[in-house]
């Protein structure tokens, strides 16, 4: 009998009702690819929560193994870049959306989707960073490319107690920025300050409809919320500043004004982690391995087992998860 491994499978019936089950698969059940990886660690991202709960149309193929990122060891490879025993990371590329993902003991993917695990990181540490932390690094890099430096003034991070926000706080403070943390969870203030926040802003300050222009409060920012929050961030950005937008937890709309763009020269920087080119991915992971304080990474991370994935996915959608959640396989 072929070796089996546990997997989470999302299915949908004829009436489009979604179901989630833990099942057993073999490598013959996996989708096409030229590299097979033993998944050693994965994580729970907001997108994974949406996929498992069905609260947004993340899954576009049924049945599907969810999970948008993993770290592990190559078991077999027909791709020239990889050989048996290599340690690798995967983020994005439709994995966990249209291609079988991380919530299984094995994954078969295209070799060009993988990047090497930095020597300074274990597979567990890489998934403590995960797609959320990798996205945070992409946002920091976008602000840097725009010329937003620590001496230009404070930067703001929304959804600061979440995965992207927590890693962004730790990174920005390590790089010398003064960071303002926006959160709807006042009880997390001590946690956010420990990560490097110099000031805590209530989510309510940014969730009402935005004025065309507000008082200039920050040189830049990282936003995971969208909608009114992003409009407010833009309206309060200093002349020549920029906001890196990477999420839509509050909505896909942007009910704002062109005033920040044409009167203050503010820029809105779109950040995509799913299809980012490999050279940018490699740079992001190198910098994460060198710039992210291991003690802060440990402080923002919770570790769970495979059997706790579904419950954790529901919790992250309900706003009950702080920082990052690593799943050891």
Describe the structure.
The protein is α/β, with parallel strands linked by helices and 329 residues long. The protein folds into two domains: 5-117 and 298-328, Quinone Oxidoreductase, Chain A, domain 1 (Alpha-Beta Complex), CATH 3.90.180.10; 130-270, NAD(P)-binding Rossmann-like Domain (Rossmann fold, 3-Layer(aba) Sandwich), CATH 3.40.50.720. It has ten helices and 15 strands. The chain has helices spanning 46-53, 123-145, 163-174, 189-195, 204-207, 227-235, 259-263, 278-291, 294-299, 309-317, and strands at 5-12, 18-25, 35-43, 69-77, 87-91, 106-109, 114-116, 155-157, 179-183, 197-202, 218-223, 237-245, 267-270, 301-305, 324-328. α2 (123-145) packs across α8 (278-291). 49% of the residues are buried. The model has no long low-confidence stretch (mean pLDDT 96).
Nutshell version of this structure?
The protein is built from ten helices and 15 strands. The chain is an alpha/beta fold and 329 residues long. It has two domains: 5-117 and 298-328, Medium-chain alcohol dehydrogenases, catalytic domain (Quinone Oxidoreductase, Chain A, domain 1, Alpha-Beta Complex), CATH 3.90.180; 130-270, Rossmann fold (3-Layer(aba) Sandwich).
């Amino acid at each position: 009998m072929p070796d089996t491994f546990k997997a989470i499978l999302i299915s949908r019936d004829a009436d489009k009702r979604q179901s989630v089950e833990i099942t057993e698969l073999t490598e013959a059940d996996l989708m096409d690819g030229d590299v097979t990886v033993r998944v050693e660690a994965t994580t729970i991202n907001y997108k994974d929560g949406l996929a498992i709960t069905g609260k947004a149309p993340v899954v576009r193929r049924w049945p599907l193994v969810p999970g948008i990122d993993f770290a592990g060891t190559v078991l077999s490879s027909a791709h020239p870049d990889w050989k048996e025993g290599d340690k690798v990371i995967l983020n994005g590329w439709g994995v966990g959306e249209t291609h079988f993902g991380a919530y299984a003991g094995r994954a078969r993917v295209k070799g060009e989707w993988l990047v090497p695990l930095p020597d300074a990181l274990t597979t567990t540490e890489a998934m403590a960073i995960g797609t959320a932390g990798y996205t945070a690094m992409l946002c920091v890099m976008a602000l840097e490319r725009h010329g937003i430096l620590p001496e230009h003034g404070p930067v703001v991070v929304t959804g600061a107690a979440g995965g992207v926000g927590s890693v962004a706080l730790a990174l920005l403070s390590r790089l010398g920025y003064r960071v303002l943390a926006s959160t709807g969870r006042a009880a997390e203030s001590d946690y956010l300050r420990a990560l490097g926040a110099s000031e805590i802003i209530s989510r309510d300050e940014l969730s009402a409809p935005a004025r065309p222009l507000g008082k200039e409060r920050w040189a830049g920012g990282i936003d995971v919320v969208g909608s009114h929050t992003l409009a407010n961030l833009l309206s309060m950005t200093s002349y020549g500043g920029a906001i890196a937008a990477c999420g839509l937890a509050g909505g896909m709309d942007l009910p704002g004004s062109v005033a920040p763009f044409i009167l203050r020269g503010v820029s809105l920087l779109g950040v995509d982690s799913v299809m980012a080119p490999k050279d940018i991915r490699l740079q992001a992971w190198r910098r994460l391995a060198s710039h992210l304080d291991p003690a802060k990474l440990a402080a923002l991370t919770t570790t769970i087992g495979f059997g706790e994935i579904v419950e954790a996915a529901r919790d992250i959608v309900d706003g009950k998860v702080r920082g990052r959640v690593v799943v050891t396989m």
